[in-house]
Design the sequence.
């Protein structure tokens, strides 16, 4: 839910973003029946208000899960894993692995349960993908920087995660 003020009668409204049909440019104020223009922000837009202040600006809601792509190398074939709501333990494929995303690899620096990716719904109904190291021996690189113990990162499109010598790319 977002708060919107009618530019005509100034009544305050609560609008459920998920109930606004895709492609509409306005909706009627329930009090004065005048049109309230809306604009859906592009995902890369940073501004939270439109010029002139008469347009309700909405952030798009991401409904589907992301995907984790293993970048192939000499030890590891390219692989892709679809992500939905829930908890994923990612690691090297082995008979004793507790991971639910098992990467086929010869990379011995990747633990059998190397990272955790947790996907939850936010209050707007979109998905938030959180990454943390799963107490691996060889740590985890996130966009070129080591994750600290207990650190949790919210993943963004095209983020790069390195486990052992294997590079993973997250995409929304």
Sequence:
């Amino acid at each position: 839910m977002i708060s919107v003020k009618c530019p005509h009668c100034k009544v305050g409204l609560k609008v459920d973003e998920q109930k606004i049909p895709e492609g509409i440019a306005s909706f009627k104020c329930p009090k004065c029946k005048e049109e309230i223009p809306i604009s859906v922000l592009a995902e890369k837009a940073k501004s939270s208000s439109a010029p002139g202040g008469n347009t309700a600006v909405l952030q798009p809601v991401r409904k589907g899960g992301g995907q984790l792509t293993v970048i192939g190398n000499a030890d590891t074939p390219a692989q892709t894993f679809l992500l939905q709501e829930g908890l994923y333990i990612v690691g090297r494929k082995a008979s004793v692995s507790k991971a639910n995303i098992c990467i086929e690899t010869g990379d011995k620096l990747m633990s059998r349960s190397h990272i955790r990716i947790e996907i939850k719904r936010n209050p707007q109904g979109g998905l938030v993908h959180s990454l943390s190291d799963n107490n691996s021996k060889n740590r985890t690189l996130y966009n070129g920087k080591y994750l600290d113990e207990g650190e949790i990162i919210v993943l963004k499109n095209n983020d790069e995660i390195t486990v052992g010598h294997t590079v993973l790319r997250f995409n929304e």
